[in-house]
Amino acid sequence: LVELVESGGGSVQAGGSLRLSCKASGYTDCSTDRSWYRQAPGKEREFVSHIDSDGRTTYVDSVKGRFTISQDNAKNTVYLQMNSLKPEDTALYYCRTNLCGLWYRAGGYWGQGTQVTVSS
Fold first, then answer.
1. What are the residues facing 15 on neighbouring strands?
2. What pLDDT score was predicted for residue 27?
């Protein structure tokens, strides 16, 4: 069994910071080409950020300049540093990759999510 495990969520006040981690767990490593998504109550899951195997990054406009995605290949972990948090960032944050070991999954490997709550 291979899975992604997110951690680092919590409750903060607006303007605060959190760093989320996404680590592969299981008998093989997963690609550090990964994405972060989030889903707020009553809303669709939305893309937040992506980092590819060469370290190139993309962000949804609403988090540009506030969030930074990074990867540590030695630890097989991807991070999402979130600064200047706003109440509208409140959501369950998920990590996704499409490749673990030799197995490509078009629908992606997903973690269980980590909750981020930002109060005003």
1. none
2. 78
Instruction: Say if CB 48 and CB 93 are below 8 A apart.
Output: yes
- Which CA distances in Å does 60 have to 11, 64, 77, 102, 113? 22, 7, 21, 29, 19
Q: Which of 12-16, 87-91, 97-101 has the lowest average pLDDT?
A: 97-101
**Given the DSSP bridges, would you call strands 91-100 and 114-119 parallel, antiparallel or unpaired?**
antiparallel
The whole-angstrom separation of Cα 67 and Cα 25 is 24
* 15 phi/psi in degrees, rounded to 5: 95, -10
> Residues near 72 by Cβ (< 8 Å), separated by ≥ 6?
32, 78, 79
pLDDT digits (tens, 9 = 90+) for 20-77: 999 988 878 899 999 999 999 999 999 999 999 999 999 999 999 999 999 999 999 9
If you write DSSP's letter for every residue of 35-63 in order, what string do you get? EEEEE-TTS--EEEEEE-TT--EEE-GGG
